[in-house]
TrEMBL record, chains A, B:
Residues 18-125 form the Glycosyltransferase subfamily 4-like N-terminal domain. The keyword Transferase applies. SUPFAM superfamilies: UDP-Glycosyltransferase/glycogen phosphorylase. PANTHER family: BLL5217 PROTEIN (PTHR12526:SF595), GLYCOSYLTRANSFERASE (PTHR12526). Residues 168-300 form the Glycosyl transferase family domain. It comes from the Bacteria. GO terms for molecular function: glycosyltransferase activity. Pfam families: Glyco_transf_4 (PF13439), Glycos_transf_1 (PF00534). This is Glycosyltransferase family 4 protein. CDD domains: GT4_AviGT4-like. InterPro entries: Glyco_trans_1 (IPR001296), Glyco_trans_4-like_N (IPR028098). Keywords: Transferase. Transmembrane segments: none annotated.
């Protein structure tokens, strides 16, 4: 199949810095190539891919320090339209920017929505575009926008050899991610304290969270059971997870997909997570971890963590969350889309529609 | 003629706060209605217009405090496309966001570019879209982007009754606008000092300019010949200009169109301006003011300001810069566009183009 993957330009694919969407697009694109498809990736020029790369900007927008980020996005959109005849299907990862354009294009399109959708402005938008087929990254992600034209959920996946499973004998638990209020590192620290176990924290402070971090979090990091590793690289993440007894994920918001959950699973590391957003879709309670609703339950779960088989965690990852599984799920959607959707004729304005 | 005017959503039309583009769109729209055209204005719901108003958002984006500004813009763009069959011509004031869409639309479009264009990212964009007809607000504005498909320059205009001409006997000069480095209020203060005349300064401090203001400007305002009025309302602007001996406009950047220049002219107030950007297109040297290149020349010009006839200033405003003149210039372009541009057929991807 001749497939175009259209990535955001803000980060390269894969991202040099933080960039969940660009990471998933990288894994998906390479997996599609591995499955034998003819894939073209539209992304910034510093991207690295097994597919054919088409770039309208030499570097990611974050690195280029440009004044007008929208210019690159519109330029890429036009580049995609100019080449659309080369593809069977266009798969967008760029939110809704292309919606007005792609309805004029007699080409099948699918769009994966990667972000949170509980933003009031999105309701009238997706009501207007309720004919545009969109894919969710979890069922939970759809809740604020039931009106959108959801065609499927496809969970994110990682290359199977990206992380090696470990035996978790580091005698610590781990918290990974960002110091934003909804991630609730304070809960993680308290859970570890009550369970009398060390916690290693590898997290970054976003500009927007600096005040919260200074006021609410910094003093908690001084406790003897806390080890603060700051922001770590991809190479350190594997061993950190693989040697951890458990990953603590006590979130307070409807996270559409927690990448760190499947990273932990890939390392064979059980998860203790609060029941929000996509958590119950990713974590099998009692099999790959425990889903809890309080610090007490989380502490109890941590004391029972030996009941979870690390082999089961890794096996579940390979079965459900590898990038090949993700790519196969998408290919099924591409095929269904090519079969089912009627070939779109040239667009007619409403007055001329029947 | 059935005309759609498409305004930015960030401010209402006219703007409640600062918003040059929305102000011009308001003046143009009302003038087109006055000339007997059937005009629809796409703008935020708190806009006030003599035309038919179509809104996708109840209030301007600035007032709505929304998280995702792009959602409203895309929604409005689709609303325009859905109704495009109702119009002879679509006139956009929303930069380039609509470019990929309007090339699929079998409807004549024109776009006025209101902003500065010396931004590197715009070069490849306008190279890609060099078939899209665009209108400049001064010839100077085009300089960084000779590659764009410029069809005309149309200067901004004001309603003739918006400002009343005055006799300028207030014994002061005036500086109006923002305290940004490129506006060079420091020069204005120095010019007034050397000419031994009082200067009244009505200007606002944008968030981005706070440091510059505190460090470079605030201490200059303490001088005895300076009166700092802070930010003033529309009602105070007229008398302030009408009683001023001259407007000082010692800018340091290629301003695409200085609205305050024609506001001064409307009040009969001569201008002393540095030779940058659109200045020589708006100010007639020796007739409506003096164009200078140094503080010395500016001081000399100020000493000779009695040589400029305030009646000539007002007459030039009425002849060249009223909103009716602006609207007539645009109507001529609309007519030319409807006659000249071949009716666009449905878009074909490049492989099928001949």
């Amino acid at each position: 199949m001749k497939i175009a993957q259209i990535a955001p330009l803000v980060e390269s694919v894969p991202p040099k810095f933080y960039g969940g969407t660009e990471r998933v697009v990288a894994y998906l694109t390479d997996a599609l190539v591995k499955l034998g498809h003819n894939v073209t990736l539209f992304a910034s020029g510093d991207s690295i891919t097994k597919a054919r790369l088409v770039s309208v900007t030499p570097t990611s927008l974050r690195l280029s320090n440009c004044v007008d980020q929208m210019a690159g996005n519109i330029l890429q959109l036009q580049e995609v339209m100019d080449r659309s005849h080369e593809f069977d299907l266009l798969h967008f990862h760029t939110d809704y920017l292309h919606f007005p354009v792609t309805r004029f294009c007699n080409k099948k399109t699918l769009t994966t929505l990667h972000g949170r959708l509980d933003i009031p402005e999105l309701k009238p938008l997706y009501k207007k575009f309720n004919d545009v087929p969109v894919i969710s990254i979890s069922n939970a992600q759809r809740r604020p926008l039931p009106i959108a034209n959801w065609v499927a959920t496809v969970y994110h996946g990682l290359p199977v050899d990206l992380y090696q499973p470990g035996n978790g004998d580091g005698d610590y638990v781990v918290f990974l991610g960002r110091f934003s209020p909804e991630k609730r590192v304070d809960r993680a620290i308290e859970i570890a304290k009550r369970a009398n176990i060390k916690i290693k924290i590898a997290a970054k402070v976003d500009k927007a969270d600096e005040r919260y971090f200074e006021k609410e979090i910094r003093h908690l990091l001084d406790q003897p059971h806390v080890e603060y590793l700051q922001e770590i690289g991809e190479a350190e993440k594997g061993p950190l997870l693989a040697n951890a007894k458990a990953l603590l994920f006590p979130i307070d918001w409807p996270e559409p997909f927690g990448m760190v959950l499947i990273e932990a699973m890939a390392c064979g590391t059980p998860i203790i997570a609060y029941n929000h957003g996509s958590v119950p879709e990713i974590v099998d309670h009692g099999k790959t971890g425990f889903i809890v609703n309080s610090i007490e339950k989380a502490t109890e779960a941590l004391q029972n963590i030996h009941l979870i088989s690390r082999e089961d965690c890794r096996a579940t990852f390979e079965k459900r969350f590898s990038n090949i599984v993700m790519a196969k799920n998408y290919v099924r959607l591409y095929e269904r889309s090519l079969l089912k959707q009627p070939e779109r004729s040239f667009y007619l304005t409403p007055a001329y529609r029947k």
